Amino acid sequence: MSNPLYDSLLGKHRDATKPFLLLASGEALTYRGFLTLSARYAALLTAHGITPGERVAVQVEKSPEALALYAACLQTGAIYLPLNTAYTADELGYFLEDSGARMLVCDSTKAPDLASLAAKFDCKVLILDADGTGTLADAAREVLPAVEIAARDEDDVAAILYTSGTTGRSKGAMLTHRNLLSNAEALVSAWHISEHDVLLHALPIFHSHGLFVATHVTLAVGGSMIFQPRFDPDAVFAALPRATTMMGVPTFYT
């Protein structure tokens, strides 16, 4: 048994020195560097007892480290549960209980309030701040990158996205490896995306558009992303000449 998403989107780039993320600081994170970072997070997840099929809930600001944590979940077979950064503690309580999450990763400003909440559901809390610091990031620097890739079937769940709950309580939509991989392949074909494309990425990564559509399409072809921490019109206009494509939502264009 292989690991469909990891093998198709990440594993094939293990030794690539091409830039994957072009950061606002002017630095570039290569595919090799990104996969080494994510493998350190994978080792840490395993050290904390996270096993294939267990849920890892994540409510953090956008950063390369946050994206690497998602890749680490794919590598270890954990189910990734992205949560909107605007969710309140009460809302998080519902998501933790409903999903059965074993770990919650949040930023340091929310950790004091969420620690006692997570404890009710036997859920560990680790910290990851937007600047790449926190208990998760600090501990990951001290471990060797994980080598093992968890075996997963194409019908195994890779991620859970909670709906907006317009008709009642939010429901966890279970997305399988086959769901996410076929989506990326279809979009690459429809949009004629290639390894030469540079995507301007100003979307959040707690949502399917920024995390799955934009990121997976780029990984599928081995392209690059101008990875902006948030949507800022001036920063977007400044970056557009270096991009071949951009993904947005109506509020961006308005």
Indicate the topology.
Elements: H1 4-10, E1 19-23, E2 28-30, H2 31-47, E3 55-59, H3 64-76, E4 79-82, H4 89-99, E5 103-106, H5 111-119, E6 124-127, H6 135-140, E7 157-162, E8 172-176, H7 177-191, E9 198-201, H8 208-221, E10 224-227, H9 233-239, E11 245-247, H10 250-253
Q: What structural class do helix, strand and pairing data support?
A: alpha/beta
Can you give the mean pLDDT?
Answer: 95
Order of helices and strands: HEEHEHEHEHEHEEHEHEHEH
Estimated helix fraction? 40-55%
Q: Strand-residue fraction?
A: 15-25%
Salient structural properties:
five-stranded mixed β-sheet; alpha/beta; 254 residues; 10 helices
Structural overview:
With 254 residues, the chain is α/β, with parallel strands linked by helices. 41% of the residues lie in helices and 19% in strands. The protein has helices spanning 4-10, 31-47, 64-76, 89-99, 111-119, 135-140, 177-191, 208-221, 233-239, 250-253; strands at 19-23, 28-30, 55-59, 79-82, 103-106, 124-127, 157-162, 172-176, 198-201, 224-227, 245-247. The longest helix is centred in the first third of the chain and has 17 residues, at 31-47. It starts with a helix and ends with a helix. The model has no long low-confidence stretch (mean pLDDT 95).
What's the quick description here?
With 254 residues, this protein is an alpha/beta fold. The protein has helices at residues 4-10, 31-47, 64-76, 89-99, 111-119, 135-140, 177-191, 208-221, 233-239, 250-253; strands spanning 19-23, 28-30, 55-59, 79-82, 103-106, 124-127, 157-162, 172-176, 198-201, 224-227, 245-247.
